[in-house]
Amino acid sequence: MNVASERYCGPGRPKDLEKRAAILEAAKRLFPQHGFEGTSMDAVAAEAGVSKLTVYSHFGGKESLFVETIRCKCDGLLPRTLFQVDVNAPVRSQLLGVARAFFGLMMSEGALGMHRTLVASSQQSPKLAKLFWEAGPMQVQAALAEMLQKEVAAHQLDVADTRRAASQFFALLKGEHHARMLFGCGQPSAEEAEAHLEATVDMFLRAYAPR
Q: Average pLDDT for residues 89-97, to the nearest whole number?
């Protein structure tokens, strides 16, 4: 992802925003590679080409930097505009757009590395796993639930519990392919991935089509 695609938070001079973006890019490289404990603020500063004081002035501490790194990664590949509803467009095409973006995010090396790190450290650092969940998956799931609720209001879907349905949708999308990638058992071809995504969306729509 290039720096220009990042979502910037808060006011600041262009130079400040460039430094902030450089810090986030550095953090996105280092956290998946070395984990939370293995990534120091000194290392982030060196990777970003700024001082450690600059890193602290923008993010306050390593936990805040970690949370913002997760949030920006999700916002970059799953922007809020992806969940905007067009009631005149087919629901299937809108869900496929979300599915492709989500699958691309989950199958990226950065996301896989972060997943492995969090699983390995979850017993020692439960707070870290909670921070990750609240900054990333929970926000994405809430965005899809809101999208589904709008489709229900437009009589495009029949969903009693949109939060549960959103959770089901993302769990189905990860499926076997995500597990195989985590275990190092091979990446699906583009054709296999697309067939999986379309089949998942179709199954979801059959479950929640208007009665």
A: 95
